[in-house]
Design brief:
This protein is α+β, with helices and mostly antiparallel strands. It contains 6 helices and 9 strands. It has a single domain, classed as 2-Layer Sandwich (archaeoglobus fulgidus dsm 4304 fold). The strands form 2 sheets. It has a 7-stranded mixed sheet, with helices on both faces. It has a two-stranded antiparallel sheet with strand order 5-6. The longest helix is centred in the middle third of the chain and has 11 residues.
């Protein structure tokens, strides 16, 4: 569904993952926060994802499509494209499967050589496939989400770049990180790994 108008109360699903302890935890949570623009929360969602797995794209797709909020959602906004260690989100596939534009936000520029080494270390048999998914997510663009603030880095699918920037700027009401992603991160961080 093309995004025709960017309204202040556009419903955005902000997504981040909960913490986990590598080597002990096999699963963690994907946390979604339905946000109306950069203003207020309308709901929370969650789904399990495997640590160092390959299920973040289908799990997020299922979480979105089975949600009571699905019909009102206009954008999915994630914190990065890498979840639960090395579980890579396929932005174009998520946009296609949900029919919604997807924007991934990072507060620092991803260091691709470092990512590649981590993939090789933790996923020696599948690192090439994971890297291919990451490369399919497209270019990483530096964007000033708030005038005069440190830029954020974004990737996008199912939406023109200029529209993605408009959405990011509209939703960055309290910090340079858009509010839906910032709130999803706060809630996801509250889940403490099992002792």
């Amino acid at each position: 569904m093309p995004l025709q108008h960017i309204k202040d109360e556009l419903r955005i699903l902000g997504v981040d993952d909960a913490r986990f302890k590598r080597g002990r935890d096999k699963w963690t949570r994907l946390v979604g926060v339905v946000h109306r623009g950069g203003q207020w929360i309308e709901g929370c969602l969650q789904a399990p994802i495997q640590v160092d797995g390959d299920d973040v794209t289908p799990q997020l797709t299922k979480m979105v499509k089975e949600s009571n909020h699905y019909e009102q959602l206009r954008v999915i906004m994630t914190r990065d494209t890498i979840f639960a260690g090395t579980n890579i989100l396929d932005l174009p596939l998520l946009a296609e499967d949900t029919g919604l534009p997807v924007i991934a936000i990072s507060d620092s520029e991803p260091k691709m050589e470092r990512v590649k080494r981590a993939l090789q270390h933790y996923c020696p048999k599948t690192w090439g496939d994971k890297l291919a998914v990451l490369e399919r997510c497209g270019p990483i663009q530096k964007v000033e989400s708030q005038h005069g603030r440190t830029p954020v880095f974004l990737q996008w699918a199912g939406i023109p770049y200029e529209r993605a920037v408009e959405v990011v700027r509209m939703a960055a009401t309290r910090s340079r990180i858009p509010e839906p992603v910032r709130v999803a991160h706060i809630i996801a961080s509250s889940f403490v790994p099992n002792p």
